[in-house]
Specification:
It comes from Urochloa decumbens. It holds the Pfam family AA_kinase. It is an enzyme of class 2 (transferase). This is amino-acid N-acetyltransferase. With about 475 residues, this protein is of the alpha/beta class. About 30% of the residues lie in helices and about 20% in strands. The protein has 15 helices and 22 strands. It has helices at about 25-45, 50-55, 100-110, 130-140, 170-175, 185-190, 205-210, 245-250, 255-265, 285-290, 315-325, 335-340, 385-400, 415, 430-435; strands spanning about 5, 15, 20, 70, 75-80, 85, 85-90, 90-100, 110-115, 120, 125-130, 145-150, 165, 270-275, 295-300, 305-310, 345-350, 355-365, 370-375, 405-410, 420-425, 445-450. Strands 16-17-18-19-20-22-21 form a seven-stranded mixed β-sheet. Strands 5-8-11-10 form a four-stranded mixed β-sheet. Strands 12-14-15-13 form a four-stranded mixed β-sheet, sandwiched between helices. The longest helix is centred in the first third of the chain and has 22 residues, at about 25-45. The protein is elongated, with a radius of gyration of 25 Å. It starts with a strand and ends in a 16-residue tail after the last strand. Residues about 195-215 and about 450-465 have low confidence and may be disordered.
Length: about 475
C-alpha cells in the first residue's frame, strides 16, 4: 500500500472558486500550520513498542530509542498559480512535480512518507497548494493502490443509509444524479463526459454493475514535471483536482466533492479510494480491516469481469461445478436445469474463461434470496474470487430490495460463517423453498441479514479491504 500522509493548514482563508488567495501573511500562517502539523505527525509516528512487551520478548537493544520510520522533505514541486481572470492568487501554487523516485526509495526502506501541501518552486519559493490537488497528484504519480480521504462525515444513499461500496461506474452514476448540488461534481461530469452512462435504465442494477462498456475511456493523468498535462484537471484549462471554497466550507452537498475526487483518481488508475469519517474512533482500522468497512470504498477493479451468465457460459460453469457435485458439496444439476436457472447465475470471466460462478434465487415476498452454487475454478482458489462474487451477489440482492440471504450447505459452513452467515432453523427458509428441499442430504441452513452494523474488529471479520 502507498503510505502517504498529507498535511494541511486550517487557517481561515479567502477563496475564489476552489482556490485560496495566499498573500504574504497567509503564507506565513500556512507555513507555520503545516510545519506544526508535520512535526506532530512525525512525533506520533516515532515512539517504539511498549517497553513491557520488549522486556517480555528480550529484544530491548535496538528499540530503546526513537523508531526511524518517518520521512519528509521537498518532495513536491510547484509553480505559482499566477493571475487568472484578473485575480492575483499570490503565493498559491499548482502541483507541477512529485519526486516519485525519492518517495519510493523511502517507502522501500519501510518509512512512512509525510508530504505537506506546501510545494517548492524552481525559483526557491514556498507555495501554498490545495490539499486535494496534492493528494490526487501524488496518487496518480505514484500509481497508488489506495487513497484514503478522512472527512468529518459519511456518504449516504437516498434512503439515508451509509454507502459502504461503490464501483467507479456506480460513483459516476451517483455524481451525475446529484451534479446540480455541486459545482465540482458538475465540472467532473463535463470533463469525463460519459454520456453513455445516462442511457442505463434507472434501477437496473444488473446493467449499472456492468457499465464499463459504456465508459468512453477517459483517464486522469499527471505528467511529472508538467503537472496535470497543461489543463487535464477538473475544470477546463485548470490544473488538477482542487476542492475548496464555499462548497467545501458549507458542506451543503455532503461529500459529493470527495466522491468526485475519488472517481477522478480511479479513472487515472488508482485501484481503491476510501472516504471515511474521522470523527468516529477507530474508523481507519474498521475501514481497512473489516469486511464491509466503516466508510465508503470506491473501486475500479473489484467487480471487473463479473456479469450475468449467458448460454455460452454453460460449459464453463459445468466445468467449475462438476468436481464439487461429484464430491457432494453441491447439488447435482442437469444441463437442462442449469439452462433454466441461467438467468440467476453470475460469472467471473478472465481471458475468455469462466473462473467463478454463483447463483441468486430471489423470494421477493419474503424479502429474502437464496445463494447457491458458489464455486471457483481450482487454479484460482485462495485469491479472493469467492469473496468478490459473494459481495457482488449481496449488492444485487440489496438492489432488488432483499433484506436477507439464506443458503443450504453440507460441507462449507465455516466459509459462510466467517462471512457473516449464522445457522438457522428450516422455518427461517421461505415456505416455497422448503417444499423443494431434499431432506436426505441433511443440509444445514444459514442466514445473513444484509447491511450489518459494525461493532468492531473481530477474528471472524478480519479481512484486508
Amino acid at each position: 500500500m502507498f503510505k502517504l500522509i498529507s498535511c494541511c493548514q486550517k487557517e481561515k482563508a479567502k477563496y475564489v472558486g476552489q482556490y485560496r488567495i495566499t498573500d504574504s501573511d497567509s503564507l506565513e500562517a500556512a507555513m507555520e500550520a503545516a510545519g506544526r502539523i508535520r512535526l506532530t505527525i512525525e512525533a506520533k509516528l516515532s515512539p517504539g513498542p511498549p517497553m513491557l512487551n520488549l522486556r517480555r520478548h528480550g529484544v530491548i537493544g535496538r528499540w530503546h530509542g526513537l523508531v526511524d520510520n518517518v520521512a519528509s522533505g521537498n518532495f513536491l514541486g510547484a509553480k505559482r498559480r499566477g493571475v487568472v481572470n484578473g485575480i492575483d492568487y499570490g503565493f498559491t501554487g499548482e502541483v507541477k512535480k512529485v519526486d516519485v523516485s525519492r518517495i519510493r526509495e523511502r517507502l522501500d526502506s519501510d518509512s512512512i512518507v509525510v508530504v505537506s501541501n506546501m510545494g517548492y518552486s524552481s525559483s526557491g519559493e514556498v507555495l501554498n497548494c490545495n490539499t486535494y490537488e496534492v493528494a490526487t497528484a501524488c496518487a496518480l504519480a505514484m500509481e497508488a493502490d489506495k487513497l484514503v480521504c478522512i472527512v468529518d462525515g459519511q456518504i449516504f444513499d437516498e434512503h439515508g443509509r451509509v454507502i459502504h461500496f461503490m464501483s467507479i461506474e456506480e460513483a459516476d452514476l451517483l455524481i451525475r444524479k446529484r451534479a446540480k448540488q455541486s459545482d465540482i461534481a458538475a465540472s467532473y461530469v463535463k470533463v469525463v463526459d460519459e454520456e453513455g452512462i445516462n442511457s442505463l435504465h434507472k434501477g437496473d442494477y444488473k446493467s449499472s454493475l456492468n457499465a464499463r462498456a459504456h465508459v468512453n475511456g477517459y483517464a486522469a493523468s499527471f505528467q511529472n514535471g508538467l503537472g496535470f498535462n497543461n489543463g487535464n484537471g477538473i475544470y477546463s484549462g485548470e490544473q488538477g483536482f482542487a476542492i475548496g471554497g464555499e462548497e467545501r466550507l458549507s458542506r451543503s452537498n455532503g461529500y459529493l466533492s470527495e466522491l468526485a475526487a475519488a472517481a477522478y483518481v480511479c479513472h487515472g488508475g488508482v485501484q481503491r479510494v476510501h472516504i471515511i469519517d474521522g470523527t468516529v474512533d477507530g474508523s481507519l482500522l474498521l475501514e481497512l480491516f473489516t469486511r464491509d468497512g466503516a466508510g465508503t470504498m470506491i473501486a475500479r477493479d473489484v467487480y471487473e469481469g463479473t456479469r450475468i451468465a449467458t448460454a455460452e457460459d454453460l460449459s464453463g460453469i459445468r466445468k467449475i461445478i462438476r468436481p464439487l457435485e461429484d464430491s457432494g458439496v453441491l447439488v447435482r444439476r442437469t444441463d437442462t436445469e442449469l439452462l433454466e436457472a441461467l438467468n440467476s447465475f453470475y460469472v467471473v470471466e478472465r481471458d475468455g474463461s469462466i473462473i467463478a460462478c454463483a447463483a441468486l434465487f430471489p423470494f421477493p415476498e419474503e424479502k429474502s434470496g437464496e445463494v447457491a452454487a458458489i464455486a471457483v475454478s481450482e487454479e484460482c482458489r485462495g485469491r479472493g474470487q469467492g469473496d468478490k462474487l459473494l459481495d457482488y451477489v449481496e449488492k444485487v440482492a440489496l438492489s432488488l430490495g432483499l433484506e436477507k440471504l439464506f443458503l443450504l450447505t453440507t460441507r462449507t459452513a465455516d466459509w459462510f460463517v466467517r462471512r457473516g452467515f449464522s445457522e438457522c432453523s428450516i422455518e427461517s427458509i421461505p415456505e416455497q423453498r422448503r417444499k423443494r428441499i431434499n431432506l436426505s442430504r441433511g443440509s444445514k441452513y444459514y442466514i445473513k441479514q444484509l447491511q450489518p452494523k459494525h461493532a468492531g474488529v473481530t477474528a471472524n471479520n478480519f479481512i484486508i479491504r
